[in-house]
Amino acid sequence: MTTESSTDRIERSIHIKAPRTRVWGALSNAEAYGKWFGANLSGKTFAAGQRVQGPITIKGFEHVVFDVVIERVEPETLMSYRWHPHAIDPAVDYSQEERTLVTFTLKDAPEGTLLTVVETGFDKVPPGRRMQAFRGNGNGWSQQLDNIARYAANQSTN
């Protein structure tokens, strides 16, 4: 896994030993995404312009709602969405904050797929929570890339 960061941008990449089609399915199918990410997105669809919400299923974060607005879906190449980073305090109204942009890109790689996630826009997060959101998501994306790699590698090729 590779890592790159600035104060406004997090970038993580991972080589997944699975074909691009399988990685794309784990990423672009909302229900599959929820399984590896830790959110109940049953019955949801990722489509450009659509808002998708569902409860987080990760122990200790069940009070948090996964809430994204899908920006772009380019089959087997790119998917992006906007969300409120590290929005985990139920007492805080994040709705007036600008959302960061999360972009996933897929490229063929030897014996699999290179998946890269880039999250930008942290400089627009309110100063009082900017570094907490940046650090939390930096660590979170490293864990989530491991999760999707395991998920995609264990899926059958149906």
UniProtKB/TrEMBL annotation:
Query: Sorted alphabetically, which InterPro entries does this protein's record hold?
Result: ASHA1/2-like_C, START-like_dom_sf
Question: Which residues belong to any copy of the Activator of Hsp90 ATPase homologue 1/2-like C-terminal domain?
Answer: 17-152
**What top-level branch of life does the organism fall under?**
Bacteria
SUPFAM superfamilies the record matches: Bet v1-like
Please state which protein family the record places this protein in: Belongs to the AHA1 family.
User: What's the protein name?
Assistant: SRPBCC family protein
Native species: Polaromonas aquatica
